[in-house]
Amino acid sequence: MNVIFTKHVINQLYNRGISQSDAWNTFQHPDGSVPGKTPNSRKFYKNYGQKRIEIVAKQNEKGEWIILTGWIKQLGSNQSGRRPPQAATSNFLERLIMKGLNKLTNLLQKNSRKKN
Question: Structural domain tally of the chain?
Fold first, then answer.
């Protein structure tokens, strides 16, 4: 099955404290799924102890699944917890470096496409 994680989603998951492997596992082996808010999308969810990872995905015209977004909910509370405690307290410098690396990667890819 073809699944696409865009750079934006990978960065979004990182900032929310979700590993790409946990997002993949949630999508591949969910505890359940429901229709998403975006037309023709599905929300897949999986419980990990006291937290639930939710991933929204949609199929494109080629039948490939595109991961649109993802977040964490703390179970047993009313708080949506889009940011788990460890992500909320993560090192500012680490986040700044990751954003810079993402921008540099995008710039290098644009330059590479121009040459081809």
Answer: 1
